[in-house]
Every structure is written in C-alpha cells, then in structure tokens.
C-alpha cells in the first residue's frame, strides 16, 4: 500500500498543472481571436529623484503581431523587468490593427512620420527580403511583410522610429480602399479615363486643323 501511494504521489507530481502548461499569447480584433508573438524592441532603466534618493524602474517597448497582418505597439513601466514587459504586452493588445498587404509586400510607397522621425517604406520584388534596421524590422516581421525596402531618417530614438513605422503601415490601402475613398471607378483610378480624354482632345484638334 505504501508503495502504491508513493507511486501515485510521484505521478501526481509529474503531471503538468495549469502553471506548467504553456500559455498562448492571444489577442482579439474585430471579434476574431489571434495567437500573437511578442518582441521587446527596447528596455531602459529610468530613475526618479525623490526626497529619500532615487527610485529606479524599467521601461519596456514591445511589438506584438500574428506574423500575418495584425500588429500592435505597447509601452510598460514597472519596478521589475518581467512586470514591465507584461504591462507592455497587455498595452499592445489594446492597440492592434490590421495591415493592408499585397502578397508578400506592401501595395505602394508610403512615408510615416512621428515627431522628428521619418520612415520610408517601398514595395519589394519577391525574394527581396526585409531591408530594415532593428526597430523597423520588428514591426515589419510581426506584420507579416516579407519583401520590403525601408529607410529611416531623422531621430534615432527607437520609440519614435517604431511609431513612425506604424504610422506608415497604417496609411497603406488597397485598390478598393482608394476607389471608395475617392469615389471613382477602378478604370478611372488606373488612368484609362485620362487616356480616353487625351484621345478625344487629339481627335478634336485634328478636326479643327483639317477645317479650312
């Protein structure tokens, strides 16, 4: 009996409990649930001067995304590093948005701005890869973009660069989005309307020149 009880206790100890099982980092957007991956872009220790001396705490800047089309940015501050990261992840989950893509790249060239930081994004041909710095790369990879050319100008602050990158990808729009926003048809958007107008002007000019 004692041997059976000891063996049962060992089996119970070996079972993975709720804390031992891996926790999936899930996010929700528009009623849909996604499994997210987080990436800490920057950790910094900051100090606050008080009457008794200085109080130290940590700031965490984290980007989360599903590596498909969902991405978000979060900022957290706490006295311990793990707690600061946890807060930044929870903050990022509240700011998720969907990125408009075209295949493995972006639909068009776009410039993002935040304070003195500027980030230029250009579509890349298949096989180009991600040509970007560390801060921009974190956003681009978690947004699911695989072929892109980027260039950062101005500020070298990671927070400003990441926010400028998010501003850029939030401006991306598909053909249907541009058509609806401008209230025109796709042929007119692509320039067939302007070609037709130029042809009409040429024909009108030819008629006028042929007249005595």
SS class: alpha+beta
Work out the radius of gyration. 27 Å
H/E series: HEEEEEHEEEEHEHHHH
Quote the average pLDDT. 83
Choose one word for the global shape.
Answer: elongated
Strand order of the largest sheet: 3-4-5-6
Uncertain stretches of 5 or more adjacent residues:
9-23
How many strands, which pairing sense, and closed or not: the largest β-sheet? 4 strands, antiparallel
What distance separates the N and C termini? 121 Å
Number of helices: 7
Number of β-strand runs: 10
Q: How big a fraction of the residues is strand?
A: 25-35%
- Give the proportion of residues in helices: 25-40%
Explain the overall architecture.
It is a single chain. The protein has 212 residues and is of the alpha+beta class. The chain contains seven helices and ten strands. The protein has helices spanning 2-14, 81-93, 134-142, 158-170, 175-182, 186-190, 192-210; strands spanning 26-29, 32-35, 37-50, 53-65, 70-78, 97-98, 110-114, 117-123, 130-131, 148-154. Helix 3 packs parallel to helix 4. The model is unreliable at 9-23 (pLDDT under 50).
Please sum up the structure shown.
The chain is α+β, with helices and mostly antiparallel strands and 212 residues long.
């Amino acid at each position: 009996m004692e041997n059976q009880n000891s063996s049962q206790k060992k089996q119970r100890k070996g079972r993975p409990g709720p804390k031992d099982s891996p926790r999936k980092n899930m996010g929700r957007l528009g009623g849909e649930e996604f499994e997210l991956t987080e990436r800490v872009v920057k950790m910094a220790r900051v100090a606050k001067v008080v009457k008794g001396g200085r109080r130290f705490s940590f700031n965490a800047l984290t980007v989360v995304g599903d590596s498909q089309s969902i991405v978000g940015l979060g900022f957290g501050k706490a006295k311990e590093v793990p707690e600061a990261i946890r807060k930044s992840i929870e903050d990022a989950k509240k700011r998720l948005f969907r990125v408009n893509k075209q295949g493995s790249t972006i639909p068009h060239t776009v410039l993002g701005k935040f304070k003195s930081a500027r980030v230029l994004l250009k579509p890349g041909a298949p096989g180009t890869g991600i040509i970007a710095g560390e801060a921009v790369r974190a956003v681009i990879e978690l947004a699911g973009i695989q072929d892109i050319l980027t260039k950062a100008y101005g500020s070298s602050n990671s927070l400003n660069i990441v926010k400028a990158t998010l501003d850029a990808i939030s401006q991306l729009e598909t053909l249907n989005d541009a058509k609806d926003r401008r209230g025109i048809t796709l042929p007119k958007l692509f320039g067939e309307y302007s070609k037709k107008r130029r042809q009409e002007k040429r024909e009108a000019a030819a008629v006028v020149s042929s007249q005595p």
